[in-house]
Specification:
The structure is a single chain. The chain has a single domain, classed as Alpha-Beta Plaits. The chain is 28% helix and 30% strand. It has 2 helices and 5 strands; from the N terminus they run βαββαββ. It has a 5-stranded mixed beta sheet with strand order 4-1-3-2-5, covered by helices on one side. Helix 1 runs antiparallel to helix 2. It is globular.
């Protein structure tokens, strides 16, 4: 996913990590140089639907304008949900 809007400097990555863990998902999230937030997540379909709803809302001071999604072709075998810094 790539999340567009006011999503940097508002705690979006930490929010995403908490939402993923609560939904039983694993993967990663990072800021991109263009001001968007990018993430990959995998897990149960029900957990992913709940996660997507939370991401569309975002944390308190964020604003999600658009969410781009591209399904992963195969499971990547993540063990946790990490915040990446590059």
């Amino acid at each position: 996913m790539v999340v567009h809007g006011r999503v940097q400097g508002v705690g979006f990555r930490a929010f995403t990590r908490r939402a993923a863990k609560a939904s039983g998902l694993v993967g990663w999230v990072r800021n991109r140089a263009d001001g968007t937030v990018e993430l990959e997540a995998e897990g149960p379909a029900g957990g992913f639907r709940a996660f997507r709803r939370q991401i569309r809302q975002g944390p308190r001071f964020s604003r999600v304008d658009r969410l781009e999604e591209e399904p992963l072709g195969a499971l990547l075998g993540f063990e946790d949900f990490d915040i990446r810094f590059s």
